[in-house]
Each structure stands twice: as C-alpha cells, then as structure tokens.
Amino acid sequence: MESRIFTSGEHKVRLDPFSPLKQDDVDYVTNVLKQIHGNFIELVKERRPSLDVKHKTVFSGDFFTGKDAVSFGLADNTCSDLRAVCQARFGRNVKFERCEPPSGVLGRLRNLVTQMKVEVSINDMLEELTLKQYRP
Length: 136
Fold this sequence. Notes:
Helix content: 40-55%
Number of strands: 0
GO molecular function, one term: peptidase activity
Mean pLDDT: 82
Largest sheet: none
Organism: Pocillopora damicornis (Cauliflower coral)
C-alpha cells in the first residue's frame, strides 16, 4: 500500500502512519496530552472534593472496577437497581417516566425521516472525510 497525501498546511500530516515518526510530532502530541490530562485532573479535583488525590492510581489513566472507583472517590456508588438508588436519594415519591418511541403511522414516519437524516448525515461526513484525504 502506498500513501498519496496532498495537503496544505505545515502539520496536516502529523502522525501519518505511512511515514516515519518525527520527534517534533511526538513532542507536540505529548504536550497536548499533558495539557488535556492536566485539565481533566483539575476538573475532577474541583468536582470531587473527597477524592484521595494522593493515591497514585487515581490519575494514572487506568480503568477500574466500580468498587475501586468508589473507594478512590471517582464514583459515588455502584448499583444494579437504579430505581432504588433514585428513591433513596430523592425520596420514595420520585417519579419515573418511560420514554417510548412514538406509535402510529405519523410516529413511524417521523422515526423513518429522522433515521434517514442521520444516515445521510453520516454518509455525507464519511464522504467529506474521504474526499479531504485526497484533496491538494
């Protein structure tokens, strides 16, 4: 397979999988990732004041079981019964409403039109991305 890329802009082909890795690209992406991770850490610390921030694992980028996430302070709790959790938190009189898809001919027609719009939008996006790849 041969890469044929036509672009304008100095960094349009950053991290091209068909080209040798450039140290400049590695440095740039590493810097961006550090900034994003720093923003994430600040947001989590701000919104989760009881979080054990001294725990090395919390901001390692790893994934956890629900039980571990709760023990670190990353999650409030785990449950298998959302209704019971909501009732415990908001009271026994909390109301739950089912969201059913519209029924009848008009409802089905509206769903069909929405589905067609989504499919067209996705197809347009994929086509545009493909064309951008080959544009000079």
